[in-house]
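tl;dr need the bound structure. longer version: we got a ligand (uridine-5'-diphosphate-glucuronic acid) that a collaborator sent over and nobodys looked at where it sits. i said id run it. heres the input, straight from their email, havent touched it
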Amino acid sequence: MMNVCVIGAGYVGLTTAAVLSDLGHKVCCVDKNQEKIERLNRGEVTVYEPGLDEKIDRNRLADRLHFSEKVSEKISEADITLIAVGTPPSPEGGSDLTAIDEATDALARSIRNYTLILTKSTVPPGTNERIEQALLKKGLDHALFDLVSNPEFLREGTAIEDTLHPNKIVVGMKNRGLVDTVKILYRGIDAPYIMTTFEGAEMIKYASNAFLATKISFINELARICDAYNVDIGDVAAGLATDPRIGPHFLSAGLGYGGSCLPKDVSALEYAALQKQVVPVLLDAVKRINQSQIDVYIKKLEHELLNLRDRQITVWGLSFKPNTDDTRSSAAIRLIKRLSEKGCHVQAYDPEASETETEVVRIEDLYDSLEGSDALVIATDWDQFKQADWAEVKKRMKGNVILDGRNCINAQVVRSHDLCYVGVGRR
Ligand code: UGA
């Protein structure tokens, strides 16, 4: 059993803290946001993540998991401290490392006994070296700490499962012996260890997200070509998936990728490349395809409705993907903005989405949201939408256009209800 401090009570921090306490460690998750800590101490889980509330409750009751705003105090008591703070995009396209710098300050101030520091936050190449140098410059004796880069690969919506069953544990370090302590921390988690340098670990994280984004933009570009040749992109994806060198995942065409990670990490990697005078041609194309994917759908809607001005459109789905309330960089929100600019009146339904910065009329009931609409756009592939009662949909709408922005609906079933189904690269 180890005394663990997790800095940052966001998605990664909370999930990691919950799982580590489940593995038997004594964990304190700290955050300078006092209100967030108070809510967590009242038993309110501040993010929507299936299964997380139950895991947090159980470990709080067992006295293995605590929340505190006393960052320094809890760091000073820990054998291991994990940095799990946010690294949002900076205005220039890189990463805003303010929270990393604050965590570094807190570590330099607070460490009294030897502590192993693990960086879980996604950080640009060179950041762990920068953290180590900053700690030394601030007067922390190197005998009192070691630093390891240990990026996180969990997905929102399946965060617990991904943390308990990762496909790898990446450990970037200067002294390979440190992996033994990391293995004690993750005892009970069965995954291959990839051992590398600080920068190697930082790059594996960016490379993973950039590759996933590339797969999505590839299939989206292909879907445009399939549209032109009247080919079903689903058939093409199924054909690709059988080749083990390609694999079946991340080949669903649609409105494009969103969320707090893929868009930010593609940009941050591009920025990091440019900093060293490397021109990232492919990453730029991946981004451009993703941005212009919304235009493809707007054109399809214009084709069906002729004129978008004053049309009433219902959008199902606001979160960037199903099983999360997260709307950061959501393609659904970008689509709604474009529809509003075109003069549409938009009303939306989402089972969980948090508040969005875009003003949109939210309707609390799936079918009420269709009242008087000329078209329905499915922007997020929640199960609830896939199982919709299309007879009821037909009854409630004024028009009959169903634009499937995730290619997730059974087109035959929809058409059998006298509705006009439109997907991308779909016959
Ligand atoms: C992503 C990575 O998948 C995680 O491995 C990583 O740890 C995480 O970022 C992170 O860096 O923290 P996440 O942002 O939760 O996870 O979302 P994904 O499941 O990757 O989905 C991203 C976007 O791609 C969603 O908008 C989704 O709708 C879209 N997508 C996904 C497609 O358009 N097509 C696909 O075939 C798959």
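gonna send this back to them w/ a short note. Residues 198-229 form the longest helix (32 residues).
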